[in-house]
Design a protein that fits this description.
With 387 residues, the chain is α/β, with parallel strands linked by helices. It folds into 2 domains: 3-191 and 304-386, Aminopeptidase (3-Layer(aba) Sandwich), CATH 3.40.630.10; 193-302, Alpha-Beta Plaits, CATH 3.30.70.360. The chain has helices at residues 3-10, 28-44, 122-140, 168-171, 218-226, 268-289, 306-309, 314-325, 340-346, 370-386, and strands spanning 47-51, 57-61, 71-76, 91-94, 110-113, 149-154, 175-181, 186-188, 193-202, 244-252, 256-265, 294-302, 331-332, 353-355, 367-369. Strands 1-2-6-3-7-14-8-13 form an 8-stranded mixed β-sheet, with helices on one face. Strands 10-11-9-12 form a 4-stranded antiparallel β-sheet. It has a 3-stranded antiparallel β-sheet with strand order 4-5-15.
Length: 387
């Protein structure tokens, strides 16, 4: 199966993750996709293919030369809950320009797009397709010398849980790469420090006709708290190394309102300061409306992998050399997000991030340039050859 057909098959699976189920994987579609992938990996000839009860897949491409390091390649099976991933209708177009959602540098290229009712799923099914296709190529070309390669596919990366049950020891790689970046050339070993925050506001409801000095409207209190945060420290007003507070969900009645935030910053000290600021605002609101009116829960998700990658920068240099060898210009920049690799780096598996090729991730306007996907596959092959 070629890489395009493989990707188109993958996006037929609905694998949207859901942070509210409390399960791993968080949605049944991910396990359905995992079972399909496990059988595919066996069918192309990989060994040691495992699928555990939490939906994690691992597999091995055996070494042809045993004195080389063991390299891993990792991608995630889930898609973002920011847009629907159900009944994806992809199509292939030759882009001739004129679409405000598509960069003009892709004029003349073939792109995989959606009908704009769902996301596409290139994040990260493109990464999976690239890895599987590269493994199939190496199995079909035994004359290419390489060390042992380990493959890992994870659930629930989009809700910050992709590394929760990843067994680094069982994976057994010396280092790895996540194929989870965006546009062609991206190579990333810095990411946000990240936390999720739930704020619950408790109110008191009575008939509005007799509410004087009785009603406590939780939605109004929640709104008051939300506007106390600096309006310029939001995703739409920040770039590069600037951090933010991002309100991603708001659900409420007079009786109770919940605010869901994510907190992001590349700098660890500023990250900790942002968490303290939210806790300070909650205390301030409670002083006004009464202790217990507002509750806050903050959960760290992952940290900036830079401190774990800097001691092993040869793996970044290897990726750069591989890109240049296949005609791709490396674009080294910080991730304004995170990957499984961030947490895995802190668990003993250095794991920078390489482009998967897609654009407009988490959006109904997501698209995937086919040449970028082919280039990512070639980078994987070159890394394996050079290692």
């Amino acid at each position: 199966m070629n890489i395009v057909d493989r990707f188109l098959k993958y996006v037929s699976f609905c694998t949207t993750s859901d942070e509210n189920t409390g399960m791993t994987p968080s949605t049944p579609g991910q396990m359905e996709f995992a079972k399909y992938l496990a059988e595919e990996l066996k069918s192309i000839g990989l060994t040691e293919v495992t699928l555990d009860e939490n939906g994690y897949i691992m597999a091995t491409l055996p070494a042809t030369e045993s004195d080389r390091p063991t390299i891993g390649f990792i991608a995630h099976m889930d898609t973002s809950p920011d847009a629907s991933g159900k009944h994806v209708k992809p199509s292939i177009i030759r882009y001739e320009g004129g679409d405000e959602h598509i960069d003009d540098r892709y004029i003349g290229q073939e792109l995989i797009v959606t009908d704009h009712t769902t996301l596409l799923g290139a994040d990260d099914k493109a990464g999976i397709a690239e890895i599987v296709t590269a493994m199939e190529y190496l199995l079909q070309h035994p004359e290419i010398k390489h060390g042992k390669v380990r493959i890992g596919f994870t659930p629930d990366e989009e809700i910050g849980c992709g590394a929760d049950h990843f067994d680094v020891k069982a994976f057994g790689a010396d280092f790895a790469y996540t194929m989870d970046g965006g546009a062609m050339g991206e190579l990333e070993f810095e990411n946000f420090n990240a936390a999720a925050c739930k704020i619950r506001v408790h109110g008191y409801n009575v008939h509005p006709g007799s509410a004087y000095h009785k009603m406590v409207n939780s939605m109004r209190i929640a709104y008051q708290l939300a506007v106390m945060l600096p309006r310029w420290e939001t995703p739409e007003h920040t770039q590069e190394y600037e951090g933010f507070y991002h309100l991603i969900g708001m659900n409420g009645t007079v009786e109770e309102t919940t605010l869901s935030y994510i907190i992001r910053d590349h700098d660890r000290a500023r990250f900790e300061s942002r968490k303290r600021e939210l806790e300070h605002l909650v205390r301030k609101v409670n002083r006004e409306f009464g202790e217990g009116t507002v509750e806050i829960e903050i959960r760290d998700q992952y940290y900036n992998m830079r401190e774990k990658i800097e001691p092993v920068m040869h793996i970044i240099n290897l990726a750069k050399e591989a890109m240049e060898a296949v005609g791709v210009t490396p674009v080294v920049k910080p991730i304004r997000g995170g990957t499984d690799g961030a947490r895995l780096s802190f668990e003993g598996l250095p794991c920078p991030n390489i482009f998967a090729g897609g654009e407009n991730f988490h959006s109904r306007y997501e698209y995937l340039p086919i040449p970028s996907m082919e280039a990512a596959k070639n980078v994987i092959l070159e890394i394996i050859k050079k290692a």
